[in-house]
Design a protein that fits this description.
This protein has 137 residues and is an alpha+beta fold. It is 16% helix and 37% strand. The strands form two sheets. Strands 1, 2, 4, 5, 8 and 10 form a six-stranded mixed beta sheet that branches. Strands 3-11-9-6-7 form a five-stranded mixed beta sheet, with no helix packed on it. It is globular.
């Protein structure tokens, strides 16, 4: 994609988002899951998202029934992936594809310990406050 087309696309996207009523955005909560287990330690500002570099399972972003006792996934959402390099802070697109699920091993194959997997929702109806997953030993 050439730079001019990318710039025009970004500008149109920016104007589309700013034209929306901000109160209409992020009405529903979503979370990252590995298989059916929520990744964040707690769905609060203090929650931590980490996965082992040896993790297995299916990565999804889902709406959820959240409670202090358990968090149950209720529906898969479309998402995109990026990876933030742990050393330089550079964020790069994992793929041009949009996913509803992906094997975590596929993503981890492009990560190093200390990197962060960045999850991007593709619609602004869903809040995803824990959108970065740190890759640990």
């Amino acid at each position: 994609m050439n730079v001019k087309l990318l710039f025009i696309s970004l500008m149109l996207t920016y104007h589309a988002f700013t034209a929306l009523n901000p109160q209409e955005r992020f009405r529903s909560c979503a979370a990252a899951f590995l298989d059916d287990q929520i990744i964040v330690t707690e769905y609060t500002d203090n929650g931590i998202c980490e996965v082992s570099s040896q993790a297995t399972g299916i990565l999804t972003v889902q709406t959820a029934d959240l409670s202090p006792e358990e968090s149950m996934p209720t529906g898969k959402l479309k998402f995109r992936l990026a990876i933030q390099d742990g050393e330089t802070g550079t964020i790069w697109s994992y793929s041009d594809k949009t996913y509803k699920e992906i094997p975590i091993r596929d993503v981890l194959g492009k990560c190093r310990v200390g990197d962060q997997i960045v999850l991007l929702t593709v619609v602004d109806e869903y809040a995803l406050p824990h959108s970065r997953i740190t890759v640990k030993e």
